[in-house]
Amino acid sequence: MALDAMENIRPFYTDANMKTLKPMPEFKVTFMAMPQTKREMMMRECQDATMSKPDAEFCADVNAVAGS
User: Fold this and answer.
1) For residues 31 and 49, what is the distance between their CA atoms, to the nearest angstrom?
2) Separation of alpha carbons 43 and 12, rounded Å
3) Euclidean distance between CA atoms 22 and 25, whole angstroms
4) Distance from C-alpha of 30 to C-alpha of 22, rounded to nearest angstrom
5) Which of 4, 13, 36, 68 has CB 3.0 to 4.6 Å from 18, enough for a Cys bridge?
6) pLDDT at 30
7) How confident is the model at residue 68 (pLDDT cuts 50, 70, 90)?
8) CA distance 12 to 18
9) Distance between CA atoms of 52 and 29, rounded to whole angstroms?
10) Distance set, CA 22 to CA 31, 48, 49, 50, 57 (Å)
11) Distance (Å, whole) CA 68 – CA 60
């Protein structure tokens, strides 16, 4: 699962405790730098209401970037 792997989502946060997401421009650069397979996994998982609930803020940004 892409959202469960800390190494996948850690680059999107500004702090070590992963409480503050990067600003949208930086978030988008980080997202687009990932391999397409990981981006697709994240987008699928963020579309699943059950899986995305614990990562709602993160998924909102993924969905915004994916829709742009």
Assistant:
1) 20
2) 14
3) 8
4) 9
5) 13
6) 96
7) low
8) 8
9) 21
10) 11, 23, 23, 24, 11
11) 12
- Residues 8-65: pLDDT tens digits? 999 999 998 999 999 999 999 999 999 999 999 999 999 888 877 888 899 999 999 9
Taking the C-alpha atoms of residue 11 and residue 28, their distance in angstroms, rounded to an integer, is 11
How many Cβ atoms sit within 10 Å of the Cβ of residue 55? 17
SS3 66: helix
Predicted local confidence at residue 38, as pLDDT: 93
Query: Tokens 């998982």 label which residue?
Result: 45
Choice between 45 and 2, residue whose per-residue pLDDT is larger: 45
